[in-house]
Queue: 2 jobs
Job 1
Amino acid sequence: MNSTIRLVGISGSLRKKSYNTILLNAVKELLPAEVTLELLSIDGLPLYNGDFDIPDVTQRPAAVVDFRNGLEHADGLIIVSPEYNYSIPGGLKNAIDWASRGTDSPIIQKPVALMGVTPGLWGTVRMQLAFQPVFQALGMQQTKPEILVSQAKAKFDTEGKLTDEDTRKLIIKQLLSLKEQIIKMRS
Ligand SMILES: Cc1cc2nc3c(=O)[nH]c(=O)nc-3n(C[C@H](O)[C@H](O)[C@H](O)COP(=O)(O)O)c2cc1C
């Protein structure tokens, strides 16, 4: 069996200068050994429509097929997202809904690490809470510790490098625990 662990990362923000996408990119240099991370965009996904899904999955829009294919070989997920109106951004929830359907769902029962970045103090806490029933519905086990990067402006340099040492340590811990969980599931 291939020992490399393949993670797929999704940002909940489409904004070019999104703090959450900046963090997702910064995570690449904090990965444990033998772990890879590929970013998958939710941009361009249509709104969920059951008329183009199960039972006739050949009807799925091309963007949905690409998105699901991008998740298929992932051993685990990293989701980094802002909070919109105290909850999960609609675009991200829509992407999860498209990925969740069918016995061939590429996300059901996959381990997941969740993080959020806010320019404020404790934004993303409610997004992280709103994800709990979603993870429960999909049998996705979330790794700890939970990560909230507050006051984002002070945590990155102009190149997008995560400079806050405490946050780096927490993320390394979370990624290690994600890796361990995946190894446990494989054995
Ligand atoms: C539609 C919308 C709703 C928002 N709702 C909240 C909110 O409920 N709580 C919060 O702390 N910030 C909220 N914000 C502010 C975002 O946290 C902030 O814009 C953040 O930088 C977005 O993440 P990004 O930089 O990755 O795009 C909201 C922003 C938008 C666009």
Job 2
Amino acid sequence: MRPRYVLAGMSHETNTFSPQPTTIDKFCPLSSNGVLLERDAAAAALGGTKTPFGGFYDMLVERDADLVIPLAAGAMPSGKVTDDAFEEMAGRITDAASTGPDAMFLALHGAMVTETHEDAEGELLRRIRSIAPDMPIAVSLDFHLGMSPDLCSNATVVTGYRTYPHIDTYETSQRACSTLLRALDGEVDPVISWGVIPLMTNMLRQTPLHQPMKDIMDRAIEAEASGEVLTASVFGGFPLSDISHTGLSVIITSDGDKTTGDALRDELLELAWERRADFVFDFEPMASSVARAASIAVGPVVLADHGDNCGAGGITDVMSVLEEVIAQGLDDVVAGPYCDAETVRVCLDAGVGAEVTVELGGKVDMPAIGLPAKSMTLSGRVAAITDGRFLVEGPMGTGTTTELGDTVLIESDHADVLVCSSPLEPTDLGFYTHIGIDPTARKYLLIKSRQHFRAVFEPIAAEIIPVAGPGVCSEDYSQRTFEHIRHPMYPMDLDATMDVIGN
Ligand SMILES: [Zn+2]
């Protein structure tokens, strides 16, 4: 009899400092008319795409098996997921588990926090395991997460992204998928070793492209490639979430020999702990960064405002950096996209070619960091209007369709400003080219992103300058009150010791 597999995707990175709750409609792409994707629609939208779901799907359809898809849902990072949304999504997956499949493949994130559960993925795995005690489960995860006992003890194989920008999401799922398929074929016997240490890394110091993370990730990759273990993943953690299980973590799957996995886990965690001071980021004041940009002669200069980046839960409507850029007299600037549906509506009503004066951005208060909403007045000409849809050709999410909603370009004296209706991080040049902007021909590109923009903007940039704008993604962690993280936690507690939680 053909085996029956369940494939599901449920992804959210929760910034617990964001004031915007994440409701179920946020998990429905604009093109789905507000419906969660499942079955054929999920396969059509994501099969063949360079996404976590696509990685599993493409490998599983090659298998002589029945494939059940109860859910493929993902929302942009934002505030806590509502209980209603979580129960709807988790319910679809546990219902599928209760039908007795031979295995389950899950593309998750690892940083979802709901109104009730600070460890939503762990809660999901715990529920699945209570229904199907012996069912093999493969899980792929983002690099930014909180690793938890419920997640690790209830899965069979777990893998995580090894890049940041995340350009290996597809391969990450394929690593988990192929390992579990080998286990189902009786070739290997996966055993998990995992651990998390009290080290809150700064997101601007996390990328495996550079030290201090490079050596750590390279060792994990080498251990997996050589066959020392089945899979090895290191996770930078997600410091914008106030949860008890935050920290840098490692998860290893070894072949029937936990001793080997434990040894590699300890080696990787000890290496990270030795380098803990290097994971601290000393940021430059916003005005100094903009002044530095102003002194550069040749563009494009990318100004990356990382404090209000929707890719980590930012609102995408804090205008402080654009105001500073204009105040310091930078010219030939393209800025955005900012998310402001009200301003888009004004421009749509006015039409292309019309002169408008808008109160741009600043629609949302951020009480968790004491930042009130503040818009800026912008006058200019509506130069272009689009539906905000384009096919991603860059390395992040290749083949997926970006949906910014109705999008407008306002030409003003000092800056051409892009305004959209649905927040998305600019991870593809299509954000600009789809509305007629050639980013290579402009002096300054002011975007809201921390790291992911580098996948496509680094190759075209003469210079990149991170700018510490205000927002719920600010790297200044002293702005927020952490009530739930464990202590001692480095660098908040400089006397912290390497106290490993794991198995
Ligand atoms: Zn991530």
